[in-house]
Design a protein that fits this description.
globular, 10 helices, alpha/beta
Length: 241
């Protein structure tokens, strides 16, 4: 299924190279198949990156079993887009997974990647977290401070924070008046990218968060244009124009 989807996506791009890019689907948790598909998609199909779900059957992206995949992605300086999945736990009654669990799972896998050293070992990959990184920007100093004082005193808080700041973040459903200031305060320059969550989020939701982004009063000069397009052009120079 991943191969069929990726070949279809490559044909769409080939027919409209100035309009479209595509992230290849990767069939985790089958590591051998995932590595083979990533290599094929990036080397043969010319994919602009790969998309990974935040967990694969309950296994998070910092898991040691996924090291061969990260190594291949790192060798290719790949762009990796991480989208949340349902975490391996029971839903809260009356609370659909996208409402709360997705932002939780994005944060969970990002922290798992940092604590297990993925973001330190594989510095050529550019990892984009959807939805503003869940609540990672808001809680980053909690993660770094408690790790160095409670979890592992051999690890410095500054090193944890450095690896957390290596992530890129999109603004899908996350440009609210409370979330956007935290995201911009935490993210490294050039690491915030426009996202809409279309077509999965209804148009009304996308329009609401677009409005927040378009009317945000505290952008520095040039920052809005960078978020809207410029930062993405650096990651995807093929599409820059």
């Amino acid at each position: 299924m991943a191969r069929a989807v990726n070949e279809y996506g490559a044909e769409v791009v080939k027919d409209n190279p100035d309009r479209f890019g595509h992230f290849a689907s990767i069939p985790l948790p089958d590591v051998d198949a995932a590595v083979a598909e990533a290599v094929y998609a990036l080397d043969v199909l010319g994919a602009d990156g790969v998309v990974l779900m935040s967990n694969a059957h309950g296994k998070y992206l910092g898991d040691a079993d996924f090291e061969p995949l990260w190594a291949e992605l790192d060798r290719r300086s790949a762009n990796v887009f991480v989208h949340p999945a349902q975490p391996p736990m029971t839903l809260l009654p009356g609370t659909p997974a996208p409402l709360a669990d997705y932002v939780f799972d994005t944060t969970r896998t990002a922290l798992n990647m940092v604590l297990n050293g993925v973001m330190d070992r594989y510095r050529n990959v550019r990892v984009i977290l959807s939805h503003g990184g869940g609540f990672l920007p808001y809680a980053a100093y909690r993660f770094s401070g408690l790790t160095s004082t409670v979890v592992d005193r051999e690890r410095k808080a500054d090193d944890i924070l450095r690896d957390l700041k290596r992530f890129y973040f999109d603004t899908a459903l996350s440009a609210s008046p409370s979330a956007l200031p935290a995201l911009l305060a935490f993210a490294e320059p050039g690491h915030v990218l426009y996202g809409s969550d279309w077509p999965f989020a209804p148009q009304e939701a996308g329009s609401c968060y677009n409005h927040f982004l378009e009317t945000y009063p505290d952008f520095t000069p040039g920052q809005a244009a960078a978020v809207d397009r410029g930062n993405a052009e650096v990651l995807f120079p093929r599409l820059a124009r």
